[in-house]
TrEMBL record:
InterPro entries in the cross-refs: 7TM_GPCR_serpentine_rcpt_Srw, GPCR_Dmsr-1, GPCR_Rhodpsn, GPCR_Rhodpsn_7TM
TM ranges: 37-57, 69-88, 108-131, 152-171, 226-251, 285-305, 325-345
PANTHER family: AT19640P (PTHR46273:SF4), MYOSUPPRESSIN RECEPTOR 1, ISOFORM B-RELATED (PTHR46273)
Keywords: Membrane, Transmembrane, Transmembrane helix
Record's protein name: G-protein coupled receptors family 1 profile domain-containing protein
GO molecular function: G protein-coupled peptide receptor activity
SUPFAM superfamilies reported for this sequence: Family A G protein-coupled receptor-like
Domain G-protein coupled receptors family 1 profile: 49-338
Subcellular location: Membrane
Record carries keyword DNA damage: no
Major place of residence: membrane
Length: 428
């Protein structure tokens, strides 16, 4: 918030700056030295990882799952954010391009667009969690009266809702900036200093045409406060609370389904050393919640702390690179989560990019084929597998994906003359 709107005088600002510099200055200075290497690594690797997500999810087998639309949209947002951030950080103060009109246009676009795409990825995660909760709720309670949600129409509508909510929250920020012509002025003395790595481009008395980003003429303290609280509520607080609530509900439902399956299937299936799909999904949901809260909650806390105590904005400015790091980490881990959560994603990734990787049943599907089971266990095992499928409805892989155990049971039952259809629905 600006000095005028916050009601702070120069002495208070100076005192707060001294306090935060003493509190955080040494730590921030130490991190800023290595930030240039960390952000470059995260941006390059993150962009490539998100491109691979898009390529894999666009394969014919993956296009059957409507929830992959969310993952593609999130990958596009994250890839765009990291690519534009990487470009933005390359042109520093005193760089010859820094004073050009084309660069100030890019800076203006980045100031508006980066907030939008980052917030859109968060809202896409929220609506995906809400829709997945409704799908799981409808699966566990068929008579709940909920319409069918596991289709492309519901996914498309949800994505449109996410775009609308993001636009609503970031609209004031889009109006906050305009390009101003500062006229021709002398090159700043800092650019002529021998310590500047761009000093060789300038000579004493050189003139540059300066452009700056400022606020439009209609902007006032009322607009400033409205923009601040709109961004804080719509793009920080509500997404954090909503995602935490719905992810908690999803984990709770999956744990209940796991317990119910264990009660129904106790003693009917041999124990297995590996986790079930529901257990893996539950673990990954906890990881998603943890990553989201670790990367986004600190930003939300700082935003609302600034609303209560405006001098906190000085601390936010000092921690700018640290906050950027949290956003980059959040944008670059989706590939790891997809690979850990979905056998089908790993299989399609290896088929697409793993030319040099051995295509064994273990490294493709994540589990070795179990030994055949006896005929007398087929009926009860079939029922338990159907319970397993129901409890795993939250998985991000294709809903029709068969695990190796289920495939083996289907094949064995067919060879022994068992009818694997019940009430007109196939086992898979």
């Amino acid at each position: 918030m600006s000095q005028t709107c916050s009601g702070l005088n120069e002495s208070i600002i100076h005192e707060a700056r001294s306090y935060y510099n003493e509190l955080l200055g040494d730590y921030v200075a130490a991190y800023n030295v290595i930030h240039v290497y960390i952000y470059q690594f995260l941006c390059v690797v993150g962009v490539l990882a998100n491109i691979s997500i898009i390529v894999v999810l666009l394969r014919p087998v993956m296009r059957k799952n409507p929830f992959n639309l969310f993952l593609i949209a999130i990958a596009v947002c994250d890839m765009t954010l990291m690519a534009t951030y990487f470009i933005y950080k390359q042109i520093e103060m005193c760089h010859p391009w820094y004073f050009s009109y084309s660069w100030i246009v890019f800076t203006h676009a980045y100031a508006v667009f980066s907030v939008f795409v980052h917030s859109l990825s968060l809202w896409l995660t929220v609506v995906m969690a809400v829709l997945r909760f409704l799908v799981l709720k409808g699966t566990s309670a068929p008579r709940s009266g909920l319409p069918k949600m596991n289709n492309f129409q519901a996914a498309t509508i949800s994505i449109i809702i996410a775009i609308f909510l993001t636009f609503l929250g970031s609209a004031p920020n889009m109006l906050r900036y305009q390009i101003r012509d500062g006229g021709t002025r002398a090159v700043p003395l800092s650019c002529l200093s021998p310590k500047s790595k761009y000093a060789q481009y300038y000579s004493q008395g050189d003139m540059v045409h300066a452009y700056t980003l400022g606020q439009p003429s209609f902007w006032s303290c009322s607009w400033e406060r409205f923009s601040f609280w709109t961004v804080g509520l719509m793009l920080k607080l509500i997404p954090c609370v909503a995602l935490t609530v719905f992810m908690t509900l999803l984990v709770k439902m999956l744990m209940e389904a796991k317990e119910r399956r264990n009660r129904l299937c106790r003693g009917s299936m041999p124990s297995s050393g590996g986790k079930s799909q529901a257990e893996r999904t539950t673990s990954m949901l906890v990881v998603i919640v943890a990553v989201f809260l670790i990367t986004e909650a600190p930003q939300g806390i700082l935003v609302f702390a600034t609303g209560v105590q405006p001098t906190v904005q000085i601390a936010m400015q000092l921690l700018g690179n640290v906050i950027d790091l949290l956003s980059l980490v959040n944008s670059s881990v989706n590939f790891i989560l997809c690979a850990m959560m979905s056998h089908l994603f790993r299989r399609q990734f290896l088929l697409t990019f793993g030319i040099c990787c051995p295509q064994t049943s273990e490294n493709v599907s994540g589990a070795q084929m179990p030994p055949p089971r006896k005929r007398k266990m087929l009926i009860s095992s079939k029922f338990c597998l159907r319970q397993e499928k129901s409890s795993s409805a939250i998985q991000l892989s294709n809903d029709n994906e068969l695990g190796p155990q289920e495939t083996l049971l289907t094949k064995t039952a067919t060879e022994n003359g068992f009818n694997t259809r019940e009430n007109g629905n196939s086992m898979h």
